[in-house]
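TL;DR need structure tokens for one chain.
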Amino acid sequence: MSAEASYYVPEQSKMPILMAAAMGLAAFGAGRWMITGDSLMCILGVVAIATMMYFWFTTVIDENLRGLPSAQLKRSYVWGISWFIFSEVMFFAGFFGALFYLRNIAMPWLGGDGVGVHNPELLWNGFEAEWPLLHTPDQALNGENAKFVGAHESLSYPGLSGLLHWLPLYNTVILLFSSYTVHLAHHALKHGDNRKKFNFWLGFTVVLGLIFLCLQVMEYREAYGHYGITLTSGIYGTTFFMLTGFHGFHVAMGTLMLAIQLLRSFKGQFTADDHFGFEMSSWYWHFVDVVWVMLFFFVYII
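>> reply
TL;DR here they are.
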């Protein structure tokens, strides 16, 4: 009974059901956007999600500042973010699994390898099963009338030319260094509560995240404009943008999370013993960095 009595139970709130409705609106709007080209409903859903997150997180932060959460509730926060990061791990595992399947199973099968496989020339005369797939089966079948035209050149490093030659490597160095700077910020806060060092290294990490995003935008412009790599340029373009695009979205979210923690620090809200909001954001940032290292190896190197 004493354990139950010490467990803080928040007041009843409409925020969970409103958040669910906002997410449903965004998902439905995204589907409608893909079909009809009308993005208004999706944008409204995203704005509604952002609004609900703001009010919900503000409430949680206020409860923590008032000292309401118990040790048991704080442990539930740790488990919550742990399961969230695990779900993100499985999310990217699905994409890496799809890439593995395409490159090591589907491509050889379409090229005529394996047990009981067809003769590829009967379906797509001239199709060559090689990765990156620059000459799509649709091109082999329909020639100049192909709907899905492959890319002009792959983004495999270090075979890149022009502007893209160093961008993937630059972004790898930037994210790896940002993992170190966010660790320095954590160390400054946890050992001695050095607020100036914490703010400096955390702010530096946010800047590195923004630089990464800017370089990725430059990479996308080059990929579209000079390499012919688009979402419709066959399975190579699709997997490239799905993997790097979703990772870029996670970098944007991680950068936003760290920026919010920096604003909270300016208000003096963290102490050496109570800084779970920042700690949770730093865990997420380390996860994003590890995913990029794997992505750099599997998408750009091999």
